[in-house]
Amino acid sequence: MEVDASDVTIFVDPVDGTREFVEQRLHAVQCLIGVAVRGRSVGGIIGLPFPEGDVSSREACVVWGFAAPGAESGVLGVIGERGQQMPVSYKENLDNAMRCVTGDSKNAALKEATAILSRLIYEEGKMHAHGYIGGVGNKILAVAEGRADYAIMHFGTSLWDSCAPEGVLRAIGGKVTDLFGAPLTHSRNAPTGLVNRLGVIATGPGVIPKHDDICAEMRKSEPLRNLQDRCSGGDSAIAMSNVENPAQAFDVARCLDGSPLRVAEIAHSIAGKVGVDVDEVKLLGYASPEDDAVRGLMSDACRLTFKWSEAGEKLGLPPSAFYKKVDMGNLTYMRTKAVTQPLKIGRDSRSYRIEASFLASNACASLKEAGIDAPRCYAADLRPNDADPIESKFSLLLEDFRSEDGWHQERMLRADQAECALRALARMHAFFLPGSRYRQSSPENDNELRSCVWPSGGYWQPNFQPSEQMDVLEEAWKTHMVSFGDAWKADPHMSSFDVSTVGKRLQKHAKRIGAESHPFSACPGADDVLAEGGSRLHAIHTVIHGDPKQGNIFVKKRDDSWDIGLIDFQWTGFGLPGTDLGHFMCASVHYEALGIDGSGLEETALVDAYYESFCSAAVEFGAATSVENVECELLSRDELQVQYENGVLDTCRCVFGYQWLRVKANPQSLAANAMSIGRNSYNKSLPNALWMVRAANKFLQNRETRAAKK
């Protein structure tokens, strides 16, 4: 790998095991040279001046290992003769025991961590052997060489102690983190200094209990929680909302530099945003409940619950916030994606920048003032890296849609919830129309909006997806015919058409549909569509959410209606209202709200509700002179219908040509995902999947009919 020299830090420890050297325990003495790139250990050179524990038996040798960031393993080697490795003396002389080495420190936290590991080993039905050896490098090298399975370090070790041996252990597939499971940050500018204040745990490859499971247990421990509190400056115990499950997501509640979030910085950010003098209030502590944490493929997130001073509570400061962190280089999935789909890494990096920028913008704040619920952004830390997108980092501290306030998410939206969600989307679309008061209020507002959203919104748009998607639909459909064939045959509403033709017909029109659905994009044919649409399309050049799936929607009951909260604005940008509408109907709505009798009445009622709300909101926000004039000034109901049908077909292209192939979708896999909140409805509900196929056929027929009339 090639890296910029400015991103490299070399940690040198001339004598690791100083105490051991003085006490003549020479086998534990090492010379360490660690190599870190952007804070991650990628290699280590461990010099063994006394490989067999004395000054005369054998000449010095070197053990070295290197592994690229995110790699599961690397290369390992020895210079010179390693000689006889010094065996570890364990208190328990047990065959086939899982072996852990520590120092002989009497530190209570070290004892607690060792006891947790011992308990987990016994719970796995195995025996535990504990040995004491000196030197950080010596302990981790013992794991790398198979003389131990685990190593736990005390809390005074330094970065120059851990960098080199971590690189060597990573080279053979082992893992090193702090006790809570967060990566060690080997940087000269580490925010907690050059000391591993949260401890170090090292595990060999393939051990059971696994590294992550051990760290999860560490996060439940009250004695170890004090380590986090010392770094955060607060008391997490007084902020805990669920005493029955004490586990905390301490590995997630970190700033982008790797240290625990500081209470003073959180208080300053929140107080400033809500207009409270930060000197009048104090954040006494925060908790990060494990029950509310998410460690996703592309981001990590957790809820933070707060304990404010009495003054803060009286002033109504929020009892919680939502923290989202994207450290792309430390996410295994993103590292893999950088190799298998490198073009998407730059796109994904920009999507996080878009989300953070939009949520922190005046545009989003004004949207909230207009009665459209989007989370207030208390703080945003944006560190894009355009030269090397995988090294981009972003974090957001956001207003929380709290369950205590009635907010929740549904597996799929029922008819009344879907209608309210569509009305919220319609208001958002109308608020950002070119002729709206907001867009016309000042050039600064319009320029800011353009700078913080995509030129064309929607993650499924053709130029954000592999180009071959357009050309594989016919072939992909053959796979789906096998996977879903019996279910399609059993659906009485599919007997009226030849389902086997859907893929071929969709492929024939896919490129044009993509251009019509995303005319403001750079996809092939978009310029022609824009030229043909002229001023009519420019009049509805609004901002769309871009991914209005059910997982990005919160609902809260209010009398006979539902309040709607929108989250995740990674793909927000300019687009057509009907494009957002089509994706929403495919991804979010319960099949009963779409109509299970094939009549389409329920579906039409939802589109009508959207249009009604769009018309009234366009007038309210100054984009149209009257509800009656919306049809001639902006968008007719028939035009919306065409946009909507295109939006559904464009979503079908992405689902049929990519998503279903990637997950090997079939009725059984959909049933297995049935209770998922995060998955889209077509990936967890067979009736919804059937509706999409029927809708694809129907809307293709409509398209073919319109073409025949021209």
From TrEMBL:
Binding site for Mg(2+): 13, 16, 161
EC number(s) given by UniProt: 3.1.3.7
Recorded GO MF terms: 3'(2'),5'-bisphosphate nucleotidase activity; metal ion binding
UniProt similarity note: Belongs to the inositol monophosphatase superfamily.
One Pfam family this sequence matches: EcKL
Record's keyword terms, sorted: Magnesium, Metal-binding
Protein name per Swiss-Prot or TrEMBL: 3'(2'),5'-bisphosphate nucleotidase
Lineage: Eukaryota, Viridiplantae, Chlorophyta, Mamiellophyceae, Mamiellales
Essential cofactor(s): Mg(2+)
